[in-house]
Amino acid sequence: MAKQLSVFIENRKGRLGEVLSVLKKNEVNILSLSLADTTEYGLLRLIVNNPEKGKEKLSAEGFSTMLTKVLVIKIEHKVGSLQMLLDTLSKNDINIEYMYGLSTEGTNAFVVLKASNPELAEKILGESGINTLTTEDILKL
Amino acid sequence: MIWNETKECMSRDELTNLQSARLVKLVDYVYHNVEFYRRKMQNIGMLPSDIKSIEDITKLPFTTKDDLRDNYPFGLFAVPNSQIVRIHASSGTTGKATVVGYTRRDLDVWNECVARCMTMAGITKDDVVQVAYGYGLFTGGLGAHGGAEKIGATVVPMSTGNSKKLTTMMVDFGATAIACTPSYLLYISEVLEQEGLIDKIKLKSAVCGAEPWTEKMREELESRLHITAHDIYGLSEIMGPGVACDCAFHKGLHVCEDHFYPEILDTKTLTPVKEGELGELAFTTLTKEGIPLIRYRTKDLTSIDYSKCECGRTSARISRFKGRVDDMLIIRGVNIFPSQVEAALVEVNEVAPHYMMIVDRVNNLDTLEIQVEMNPDYFVDEIKGLEKLTQKVGHVINQALGINAKIKIVEPMTLKRSEGKAVHVIDNRKIY
To answer: pTM score > 0.90 for this model?
Structure first.
């Protein structure tokens, strides 16, 4: 399981830039990100090399942040592989709260997903021979 | 047309004599029937006999909204409930409403005053009057209703909330007058335009109140609807709508002075200011039986003109309101204090009690946005969680204020902090 760093951002000019600048100053590297937007605010979800440090530094600057357990899963870069993964979860009544991709080079793709029950999802995927990655694993990619 | 020429056009000397006689009677009445006033007078070593004429009024203590709240619900009533025939109430800052009670005679006086105001607006028994104030605890609906009935007009008790029905009936019934808030009337004019009904209405007059508005707004209403629009003023503590209204000359609002004695007070010293100078308006209810009030501070800022009006009335005229002494807002006709928002937000752990109220007027309807800071300890990183939080805050605000507000969750520590008096309101409406 990996830890995702989530940040609440108001829809206001330059606010995303300020988050990135705090991360840069503290040498927290972003491996993947997703930005969910509504009319009033955005939710920035980040996979970083050091989520704890990222949270600490952003919170100190007054941002609302939290760490969330997410599953990072390697899938083959081929038609239908994502659907197979989702089928496995769906059969076991696990919902996906949200999901985004993790970009890497090569033949494999990675998805980051927040499951309704992360522990159970990890176990079920493991039993189906699908491994999930930790932050450390991601750093080695 | 003047509804009650005897009272509305009596000479200033005669009026002063009438006010003096009524004040002497009132002070004796409250001393013997309202413990609150008896104590207040005893505390300053005063007896009813010390009040000999209206000029002695400055010797009397003031009454405030807090006094009504502290004596909730019926503590300031001068008669037993067997003589009270009607209760009205307005929202309070701390959940407790301000409650007022009327005897049958109070209702008669109220109807008389509203009848005078509606006559100032040119309304007669031949008119069809739509009353589009809310009916209920709020005094607007039933107050306007009673006055219009007293005149003998055909009253259509629309209440608020269904603009399409209102405009349809305005055309079908041939309504010639309407009583509602000025912002609601502006909205109605737009609905009429959209529905292509503007040339089909017979409206000629409007009596608008329950919220402050400007001369510019009056001009706009008059030109859009081809009517004359009049400003009716009142507050439930004193009576309800009908305390004052402007006549066809629109040079201030004629106060029903034989029933409500107005004073304009210096906001710092609370002593009377000179004629024409700006100050806080206070009223003494000269004839009220249910809940008579002495020198009730309205917190509204205005000035007074005692000269005879071109219309023939001699009653004093107060100018359009220039603002408030306190931080009360009137949004969609509802009185709102920022402290109500604060008290409501304290109940929601997920947000910090820092807030900013942004009041505006969009398409002629008041809007209220409340920005509130998220409490970082309760942050959730899912949109549905944040939406749930927004709904929760919206619900407690609605419970507290009685109106819906748009809730905007903002980042912690981002709302402006002030070192002096906190600024919690940005009002972009330009209503004063």
So the answer is: no
